[in-house]
Amino acid sequence: MSDITGFLERADLLLNQGRPKEAETWVRKVLESEPENDYALSVLGRCFLNSKRYDKGIEVIKQAISLDPEIPHYYYLAAFGHYQKNERPAAIAYLNKAIVLNPYYAEYFGLLAFVFIDENDFKQALSKSNEGLAIDAENITCLNARSTALNKLRMTDDAIATMQDALSMDPDNEFTHATVGWNYLEKGRHKDAANHFREALRIDPNYSNAKIGLKEALKSKIAPYRWLLQYSFWMRNKGRQFRWAFIIIVIAAVQLMGYFSRQNPEYENAGLVVAGIYFLFVATSWIINPLANLFLLMHKEGKYALTRSEKWNAMSFIVCVLIGAAAMSLSIFIENKELSGNYVAAGLVILALCIPVGHIHYPLKFKNNSFSQWIEIGLIALALLSLVITIAGVSPMIAIVIYFILFVVYTWSKAF
Amino acid sequence: MANDTIKNLLEALEVSPENVPLRLHLAELMLNDKMFNEAGEQFSDVLKRSYGNLKAQLGLANCYFNTGKYSAAIIIYEQIGSKLPVDDQVRFVKCLIKENSLQQAIETYQKLLAVDPLFNDDEIDNYLRLPSSGISLADELTEADFDEEAGYFMEKPKWKFNDVGGMQRVKDEISIKIIQPLKNPDLYKAFGKKAGGGILLYGPPGCGKTFIAKATAGEIDAKFINIGLHDILDMWVGNSEKNLHEIFEMARRNKPCVLFFDEVDAMGASRSDLKQSAMRHVINQFLAELDGVESDNEGVLILAATNAPWSVDPAFRRPGRFDRIIFVEPPDESAREEIFRTMLSGKPVDDIDTGKLAAAAKDYSGADINAVIDIGVEEKLRESMSKGNIQPITTKDILKAIKQHRPTTLEWFTSARNYALYANESGLYDDILKYLKIKK
Fold this sequence. Notes:
A: Serine Threonine Protein Phosphatase 5, Tetratricopeptide repeat; 80% helix; elongated; B: alpha/beta; 6-stranded mixed beta sheet; 23 helices; 58% helix
């Protein structure tokens, strides 16, 4: 066996064992003596893709394609890199080229189906996964793509049958369990979803997609969170234009209802109810995530699924709620009306702070921040200042006014 | 005569200090006259004036070698890399042996033998060759079937458990399982306890798994064969089953012998890999050898190490095989202090506070501490070269190096934590949960 073949076999073996960095060492040895070996370049590309260095992976695979443009697998690898980077048009283009060169390989159709799912083109996704399954009826990627597409198209029975097929074909496939988990979650069956995510994590504990799924499934135990999750799935499945139109229509309808109720006092209560529901919806959407994180923090399984930032979000959220409530409660016992009012205002400021601190990415940075990150830091500083000068007996009103102006800017910066 | 010449040259250099060839000549004369410290100063001076001068670098490394500053010499030899002449390669190997970097010493020695198959050095051979097999590596290199037998280095480690800082739990487990049955065979027999079986050590990289395995061999005065990742990979891609059998046979011929498989997970691979029949054969062969189906393994102690216990084939863990699985955790604070003290001994230091260093190096493995010291030493070498005299290493220098080098164990624990949380079947990773203070 020549050194080159041996080195490439070692690299292949190490890649299959999930050791991309060690595989890279061997394939680089090959490329030192044969820099134009297209297969070696494709293996190096796989090393990059498997270690999530997608840009480098795509670049190297493109070199392999330029050296031998007749190998369909290289196009598939390039498509995979683009898919991971959410560059779907490029992924589709590369997959189509791979299929032209080899129309009898089901995996290409499976990946293409998943790209179409991300494009919200569920019918195309179903069609491509069916094409793949016509070639290989047991292809796990195609079966997963088919069940997801059917689920999105509300063809629940077929979706469940396909999921069962995929699971019976390969019960130890973490990808299938995660897909089934997400499908169940979308249907609101959070307990079933959690079981499948747990199984996926048992097979591959580092599978981040399953970890995120398990977190969502556990948070879905809280009914409002579950409803909002269903709502976000529903919105996600609609086109971008629909989403914008829907939001604009809801805002316009609320404004119109307000205007109508002001003009017609007999409908004032109805206007208040609509405004109340709208406010509740908006407020819930702002606080539900840190609240759910707080719930997970106290959950025996959930607390380990949270990231450090999410834990901080949950803790700082509850700290703000408690301090805000304490400041407002304290005002009841203060006889001086002005001072009492100051405590109420400072309490409100701290209560409102629970929204930004519940979403900040921790730890806080003080270098190279984006605009909204600087606003978050500004809000924290102003809220603390308001509280401190209130305790010192000075009026915090100027700080509070600036705080709420900044707060409005913050909410709009998050909306866009 | 030589002294007169040196004196004359020193006077000449006072008149023209910029004359690099003259200074180099003087340094070489001093080196020949075994005036290592003085020669080192002259070579350093040459390097200040002519950066990267190969002769001066080699000379300076030679001075360091002869004055026992092995780590400083290693840094220079590593910088020179492939341009090293044979004599300097020999010094490089010796430095590596002195600094206990045996794996690197073996690799460097193999490269040297590839260039000069008939090379022979008794001092190196005592450490790195296979005295008991009667086969020298040079002889083997001239034969076609090099890989078949002597391709695996056998050594007789001199370290014992006392040389290993910390790791008390690991030492106790190994003692009960391996050492005591050899020391008290009758006692074990009386209790009906069979000696043998293997031990699988797992933990983050660089925490001393290989070292404790060698110390085990040293403790029972046994020979030690280290089978690394590359040897295992060769089993997959080469003439695998036969190679594996040869290794076990070699160990059986050299009883008592500790057979150590490093990165044994490479042999287990993942389940999807097992679908390939060639791989199944190797695993089956390995299991058969472990079980001692056709041969007697008495006196052959099998240790294995892995950074990825989750990738090890579950069949390896059955009774009689690797039935003890031991977590080798990163060194605790007192062990880190000991490691700092050991690694800094023999180096020019200035009142080092090892306690402070150990506290700052939380989560650092032994290998990380080594890397930290290397960074500190390199920095000091540069400073010494520019100032023309040896600058001692201070606590501040090492603290600065700690900030530059992140502990490599953190990445491992991210993965390990996930396995312990989600795939802890039959409590395999309870030790990790305990170490991370996670209660489930």
